[in-house]
Design brief:
Length: about 240
Amino acid sequence: MKIALLGYGRMGKTIEELAIKRGHEICYKTSTAIDEEALKEADVAIDFSVPNAAFTNITMCFKLNIPVVSGTTGWLDNYDKAIEICHKSNGSFIYASNFSIGVNLFFKLNKTLAHLMANQQDYAVALKEIHHTKKLDAPSGTAITLAEHIIDATDNTKWHLNNQDSKDHTNSIGITAERTPDVPGTHTISYSSKIDTIEITHTAHTREGFALGAIIAAEWLKDKTGVFTMNDVLDSII
Ligand SMILES: NC(=O)C1=CN([C@@H]2O[C@H](COP(=O)(O)OP(=O)(O)OC[C@H]3O[C@@H](n4cnc5c(N)ncnc54)[C@H](OP(=O)(O)O)[C@@H]3O)[C@@H](O)[C@H]2O)C=CC1
Ligand SMILES: O=C(O)C1=N[C@H](C(=O)O)C[C@H](O)C1
């Protein structure tokens, strides 16, 4: 498979290494605006760029009819617009806030725990994410996905970033975002009462899990048309 890497930073480089080991070719890589002629050569594009470039990169792939997998976080205000363009141009697209298989299993665990805790009024839920100091967005995309899944199962109606504002936080899940050098990504959900705390944590030891999941998603998407999620990919491989 010929892969174009849109964004050649920490993730782009890790994907390149693993993709070559899986027998793929990196036919194009960029950390700036796309060269359309070069991108046209690709069977699939993988976008791990920056929040303000993701929408342009993704919609360029739709225009050129290249299936695209995106893991870039912090651009989701434009997600619905991207989906509309994808459908109109008969494109192929998967976005995930986290492509790691382990995190996607952790998403399922989080949903199950949220359902169990839904009627336990003595417990307060909280979310914490820790990432490296180079991360541009906070909270992480993964933390937002985890919060959204808890909101779907409980009385909580929104989330907020702790220490950022003093608005009304009734029925809102507080997310603490900590930045520590070199941490690939750690997410914890805790339910605390006066008596005890129930806590689940996913700790990424390296970026390989994110990269491998994105490549598996790209292999899966290559010959399909439509908008998919990582759940669609996992349902077919687990
Ligand atoms: N979904 C998932 O599983 C995961 C998602 N992520 C997300 O992926 C994104 C990238 O993470 P990471 O690799 O660590 O970040 P990096 O900063 O290491 O890489 C981003 C790269 O994108 C480049 N870039 C800037 N503008 C453009 C453009 N217009 N087109 C293409 N590339 C551009 C940057 O170049 P320059 O440095 O010159 O600006 C940089 O090389 C982040 O949003 C992060 O949150 C990360 C890990 C897992
Ligand atoms: O920026 C990162 O590094 C990561 N970003 C993603 C996110 O925002 O959730 C996924 C992973 O946690 C690493």
